[in-house]
Automatic annotation (TrEMBL):
Species of origin: Klugiella xanthotipulae
Annotated keywords: Heme, Iron, Membrane, Metal-binding, Transmembrane, Transmembrane helix
Locations listed in the record: Membrane
Keyword Methyltransferase belongs to the record: no
Coiled-coil regions listed: none
CDD domains (alphabetical): SQR_TypeA_SdhD_like
One Gene Ontology term, aspect cellular component: membrane
Transmembrane feature ranges: 24-49, 69-87, 108-128
Entry GO MF terms: metal ion binding
Name of this protein: Succinate dehydrogenase subunit D
Length: 148
C-alpha cells in the first residue's frame, strides 16, 4: 500500500543553520534598491551637473577621488554592484551547472574573480594620486604643483 503525505507536509525537510538562499534573495532586493540610488546619483553628477560629459577628464576624476564622500560613494557602488552581479551569476551556475564538480569549479572561479576585482577596484579608489611625487612635470595634470 502507498502512503500519501498530508497536503501541508513540506517536500524537503529544512536543514538547521543559516538559510543562505534566503539571505541571498534578500541581499539582491536590498542591494538592487541601493544600487539604483547610487547609479543615478553617479550619472547625475557625472553627466548633468556642471558642463556635463564634456567636463569629464583626468582633473574631474582626480578632484572627485580626492573627496572622502565620493570615495565612500564609489566604494559602495563598486562593492554592491560586484557582489550583486556575482550573486546573480551564482544563481545561474546553480540552475545550469548540474554536475557537482562543474558547479564547484564555476562558483570558485566566480568567487575568485569577484574578490580580485573588489580588491583592485578598492585599491584604485583609495590609492589614486593625481599628483604623484617625483613625476615628470610634462606628464602630470596642470592642477598639480609639480606642473607649475
Amino acid at each position: 500500500m502507498t502512503t500519501i503525505q498530508a497536503p501541508r507536509t513540506p517536500a524537503v525537510t529544512r536543514r538547521r543553520g543559516v538559510n543562505w538562499e534566503k539571505w541571498g534573495w534578500i541581499y539582491m532586493r536590498a542591494s538592487g534598491v541601493l544600487l539604483v540610488v547610487l547609479i543615478f546619483g553617479h550619472l547625475f553628477v557625472n553627466l548633468w551637473v556642471g558642463d556635463g560629459i564634456k567636463a569629464i577628464d583626468f582633473a574631474f576624476v582626480g578632484g572627485k577621488l580626492s573627496d572622502p564622500f565620493w570615495k565612500v560613494w564609489d566604494t559602495l557602488l563598486l562593492w554592491l554592484a560586484l557582489i550583486h552581479g556575482a550573486n546573480g551569476m551564482r544563481t545561474l551556475v546553480n540552475d545550469y551547472a548540474t554536475k557537482r564538480l562543474t558547479n564547484g569549479i564555476l562558483k570558485w572561479a566566480l568567487l575568485l574573480a569577484t574578490v580580485i576585482l573588489i580588491v583592485l577596484g578598492t585599491l584604485v579608489i583609495y590609492t589614486f594620486d593625481p599628483c604623484p611625487a617625483g613625476a615628470d612635470p610634462s606628464l602630470v595634470a596642470s592642477f598639480c604643483p609639480v606642473a607649475n
